[in-house]
Design brief:
By secondary structure, the protein is an alpha/beta fold. It has two domains: about 50 residues, DNA polymerase, domain 1, CATH 1.10.150; about 270 residues, TIM Barrel (Alpha-Beta Barrel), CATH 3.20.20.70. Helix content is about 35%, strand content about 20%. The strands form two sheets. A ten-stranded mixed β-sheet has the order 1-2-3-4-7-8-9-10-11-12, covered by helices on one side. A two-stranded antiparallel sheet has the order 5-6. Strand 1 and strand 2 form a beta hairpin. The chain is elongated and about 70 Å long. The protein starts with 8 loop residues before the first helix and ends in a 22-residue tail after the last strand. It binds S-adenosyl-L-homocysteine. S-adenosyl-L-homocysteine binds next to strand 8 and strand 10.
Length: about 325
Amino acid sequence: MPSPYDLTRDELSLLLAGEPSYRVRQVWEGLHARVQRPEEMTELPAALRESLGEALPPSLRERSCRLADGGETTKWLWALEDGALVETVLMRYPDRVTVCVSTQAGCAMACRFCATGQAGFRRHLRQGEIVEQVVAAAREAKPRRLGNVVFMGMGEPLANYDRVWGSIERLHGEMGISARRLTVSTVGLVPGIRRLATESLPVNLAVSLHAANDALRDDLVPVNRRYPLEQLAAACAAYVEASGRRLSLEWALIDGVNDREGDAAELAAFARPLAAHVNLIPLNPTPGYPVVGSSPQRVRRFRDSLTARGINATVRVTRGAEIDAACGQLAAGAPAG
Ligand code: SAH
């Protein structure tokens, strides 16, 4: 069954055939602008509310919903129609509310240190399943406005390009989320980055780099063997040129692996020509990777080394680690406790 957010406006009109034509607008705006379930659209006659609710059931069924960071972070585990499990994380900050959405159930990229990659790939999410995660978060965020969406949950967004792009157009065009508040994070799929550069909507691009020499990156991020650093850099440059957006490079700091002075030098050399911003993430623990994250002191030293080399770098404040909701920890396992 389609999610209400898989339906086009024309398909909704067909579903509402026989109703006065203004109903289409009412329902469409209810779904997107007011993030309502059909059952909640009190301007509709009760019988229509009920039949629409039955025709358009939500695709996401809540398996669990957990809080962390003193209630500022919420993580959901959803079961999809076919039993696949995905996670979504809502993060409230003093100045903004952000949701981190999944784009696939599992992931085929097999990055060594990422819990999602360790578990393997199950399937692509449909557009509606992606948009519904944002809708759920927007409902939960109220009365605050959910303003930022990062495609950094489970899965590789550019491996599920059409559905991810469909969801971006829906979030931007119908839910009013500005392109500069939408961020696609990729392991570095070069054809996807090049395709992104042809789109008219300039979203932010984050590339999960983690290593700036091919030997180390081949090991940490296996897709590097297919799209090595030189090709990746060229695609990133094309994106920056086409979109006018600042590129972010994500770097999970792994003790003794990619947090040395030489690593900072290589990263700086990669980032500089792209005028990229570097996001440092202290590695979060995952069951399948025995190496630990860098100590706070080494994280600071690495950042200072980048800064001294003229690179703009910030350390990401980790959210949700106590509920396995932090970067790289999303695995859709049975919730503990
Ligand atoms: N597949 C996409 C989006 C999901 S991952 C991508 O690779 O960008 C979101 C971010 O978390 C990526 O930067 C990823 O490399 C990072 N990450 C994965 N495992 C991590 C871990 N154990 N600790 C810290 N960050 C991690």
